[in-house]
Amino acid sequence: MPTSFVLINSELSYDMEIISKIKDILVGEKDLTYEIQGVYGVYDLVVKISSDDGEKIRKIITNNIRKIDRVQSTLTMMVIEEQE
What we know:
It contains 2 helices and 4 strands. The chain has about 80 residues and is of the alpha+beta class. A 4-stranded antiparallel beta sheet has the order 2-3-1-4. It starts with a strand and ends in a 6-residue tail after the last strand.
């Protein structure tokens, strides 16, 4: 199953607002699972998104998550399905 991990840098103290906006985007999507965690380190949030449709994941990340106010940058890692 296509899976992506999205590492997010946010403006200071806006993590919870961004998490809420990501949940609003993803909760209505059919055939999609996700997890969101705040983390310590270089990045502030990690989002794991899985779906049977890899193109759908790409569109959500590009057209929605990356455009959220207060998201400074993202790094997306696509899982190599052949190695699962």
